[in-house]
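Lecture 7, part 2: worked example. A protein chain together with flavin-adenine dinucleotide.
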Amino acid sequence: MTKCLIIGSGIIGLTTAYELSKAGHRVTIIDNDKNGKASKSAAGLLFPLNPWNNSKNMQKLCMAGHQEYNNFFNILNNKEKNEIGFEKKNLIIFGENIDLAKNWYQKNFNIKFNYTKKKLNTIEKNIKESHKNFLEIENINVINPQKLLNYLKHILIKKNVEFKKYNIEKLNIFLGMPENDKYDFIIICAGAWSNYILEKKDMYLKPIKGQLLYFKTEEKLIHNVLLYKDYYIIPRNNNNIVVGATIEDVGFDEKITEKAKTYLANSIAEIFEKKIKMINFQQKFGFRPYIDTEEPCIIADDTDKRLIYNFGHYRYGVLTAISSAKKVLDLIS
Ligand SMILES: Cc1cc2nc3c(=O)[nH]c(=O)nc-3n(C[C@H](O)[C@H](O)[C@H](O)COP(=O)(O)OP(=O)(O)OC[C@H]3O[C@@H](n4cnc5c(N)ncnc54)[C@H](O)[C@@H]3O)c2cc1C
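Predicted complex, written out as structure tokens:
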């Protein structure tokens, strides 16, 4: 049994802990609860949207992620599925990307979909009449990320995974402390802050801020997840709606902005027939970990084999969390 220390308890750290403890490793997780943790504010779509823009590696990881979650949900009972806000929803893609989307999903994914030429407002009555053809993908997985984090933490505690609140300033200093010699592996899952700890000169990782709108509508606005251009609209229980998300290169600036609100609100106005009244309006943000190759980084350090990195999923971090965790397991086995 190896002793592993995981730095970061976002979705990447928690799923890594889940896979390692399942394989019999002893795991400790430390976190300092940074404001803007990406996993807390993610939308919770477990399906790649516009994946043709990503590298082949990233596409493969997304497809593996989709399969891994299906396996994971199969072992949960209904109460547990409810606890994590799990739902199967249909995804409706419309607009200019529809042919591209059709070709990509047809070629790469073993999933059921319909390419429909009837008017979109025949299935979503609030959509403008001008939006016609659409692609309908059945049964994509959607979860509530905050609830999934809580659930994973709860089962990890039951599996004797130890959680500690601790802030790592610089990894080199931390590794030099005699009490940390006991760990066989140290796995960095600190998301957008990973490079800040590592100070690696040869890797370019930075935070990319994402903002989302949450609100309620008086009547049920939509029944399916909608993808139009590069934003999505997700219906949740009780007429709640999530619209996202922006991609902003602004460092660790924690302000929620009027500009993001206007951009997302205009996006909604572009597709709905009537003006939407937003009740209980909230705007949230998170810092995504971004590497300029747009690839995740799941590797052992060149020189210190005790160090493993698992970060860098700026758009699909939740979707690819289990498939990434399995790669870490391979690295330490
Ligand atoms: C608005 C938005 C919407 C998104 N929607 C989706 C989606 O629908 N589907 C999807 O798949 N992906 C989505 N993503 C991307 C996804 O959220 C991220 O890729 C993913 O959450 C990254 O997880 P993580 O665990 O690496 O990072 P985080 O969740 O940020 O976790 C990093 C952890 O490290 C800790 N930490 C940092 N520095 C230190 C330190 N020095 N010492 C100790 N602990 C430290 C932090 O406190 C934090 O808990 C979205 C992202 C955003 C921002």
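The chain is about 30% helix and 25% strand. The CA atoms of residues 14 and 152 lie 7 Å apart. Keep this in mind for problem set question 3.
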